[in-house]
Design a protein that fits this description.
This protein has 14 helices and six strands. With 328 residues, the chain is mainly alpha-helical. The chain has a domain of 95 residues. The strands form three sheets. A two-stranded antiparallel ribbon has the order 1-4. The longest helix has 29 residues. The radius of gyration is 22 Å and the shape is globular. The two termini are 26 Å apart. The protein binds protoporphyrin IX containing FE. The site of protoporphyrin IX containing FE (HEM) has 21 residues, from helix 8 and helix 14. Keywords: Heme, Iron, Metal-binding, Monooxygenase, Oxidoreductase. Belongs to the cytochrome P450 family. It holds the Pfam family p450.
């Protein structure tokens, strides 16, 4: 869905090409060097491998663009929009502002969305209260939108409006917010290019002109003065009257803050809500310890907080699932 909307339909339609492209994105992400952000001349090996990954990405999209030009095919996707706007392949995959948007957007979608969407059922499988609330929510939406007794849940979900997807699933939204609080890693960095020092805390400290401000997200997301039992999966902490994320300004940074907030938030929420609502409505699921579905109550470890990229758990998590007999 992400590739189809934000890149090219041809890549989305071809499973092998889609997997390959996702693999290149993950490789690019893992080879990022924080050291190189600070010492730009550092000959980090990962940097050269990222150039190679950039070339691999270039080849994927170059082939699609050339094929469209050769056959005169038009598609309804971002790539077509960029082609129509006169962007070159370099614009789309290279180092320009356009490219940064496409690459950031695809990173966001391919990596952040997928990882958070996968953690939700893992947490839910260990939290019967929230699993029941999420199921009741999906069931409620289905029964409110049923137009005939024969209509199947899958068809009712398929006919929901955009408005309904965006507004009728507050429980899934709370679970996503809690997953992001627990899973999102890293330090947003901003360079002060204003030409002047920027005071930061009213105690005389400044971010000097030309320097970076670096902020560890954990500083707020795991702060026990803001979030009670911060390591616990507890989506209710965002509900009124608790509203822990409203205790202090910028207590929740899961979608960024200030001028560079996540541009894909609505799209990411939509994708995750759709995937989760279908899954929760149609399947019973429980956590498993292996590929054979052996039940377990041991959650895969949370990401290593010293790792500053979105990562999948080192040890894979498994879900055992079966169609819900009461929904068919
Ligand atoms: C659950 C999924 C996602 C999460 C948790 C997430 C989170 C974030 C965060 C925290 C930032 C700010 C980073 C910073 O301050 O340096 C950000 C920026 C951004 N996100 Fe997302 N994101 C997600 C999905 C997406 C998707 C699907 C897209 C594309 C449609 C997207 C596009 C972007 C872009 C373009 C920026 C950079 C904005 C800018 O620099 O002005 N994100 N995202």
């Amino acid at each position: 869905m992400t590739i189809r909307t934000l890149a090219a339909e041809e890549v989305a339609d071809d499973r092998a090409l889609g997997d390959y492209t996702l693999g290149v994105f993950q490789s690019l992400e893992h080879r990022a060097s924080i050291a190189k952000v600070f010492i730009s001349w550092l000959p980090a090996p990962g940097h050269y491998l990222r150039i190679w990954d950039g070339y691999r990405l270039y080849r994927v999209f170059a082939r699609v663009v050339k094929e469209r030009a050769r056959t005169g095919t038009r598609r309804e996707d971002t790539l077509q929009y960029l082609i129509d706007a006169g962007a070159s392949i370099k614009d789309i995959t290279g180092l320009t502002t356009l490219a940064k948007f496409v690459i950031n957007a695809l990173f966001g979608g391919q990596v952040n969305t997928g990882i958070n969407a996968a953690w939700i059922p893992i947490f839910l499988s260990l939290s019967p209260e929230w699993e029941a609330r999420a199921f009741a929510e999906a069931k409620g939406v289905i029964s409110r939108n049923r137009t005939s007794p024969e209509q199947k849940p899958i068809d009712i979900l398929g006919a929901l409006t955009l408005d309904s997807w965006q507004n009728d699933f507050p429980v899934i939204d709370l679970c996503l917010r809690e997953c992001i609080r627990l899973i999102l890693l890293g330090c947003p960095k901003r360079k002060n290019t204003s030409g002047a020092d920027i005071p930061v805390n009213g105690r005389g400290e400044v971010i000097p002109n030309g320097s970076y401000g670096v902020y560890l997200i954990d500083q707020v997301h795991f702060n026990p003065d803001i979030y009670s039992e911060p390591l616990k999966f507890d989506p209710g902490r965002f509900e009124h009257p608790r509203a822990e994320d409203k205790k202090v300004p910028h207590a929740f940074l899961g979608w960024g803050a200030g001028r560079h907030q996540c541009l894909g938030m609505r799209f990411a929420k939509l994708e995750i809500t759709i995937i989760m609502a279908y899954f929760i409505a149609l399947f019973e699921f429980e956590l498993a310890s292996d590929v054979h579905g052996t039940p377990t109550t041991t959650r895969p470890p949370l990401p290593n907080r010293n790792d500053h990229f979105s990562t999948k758990p080192k040890k894979p998590g498994y879900l055992r699932y079966r169609p819900r007999s009461d929904m068919w």
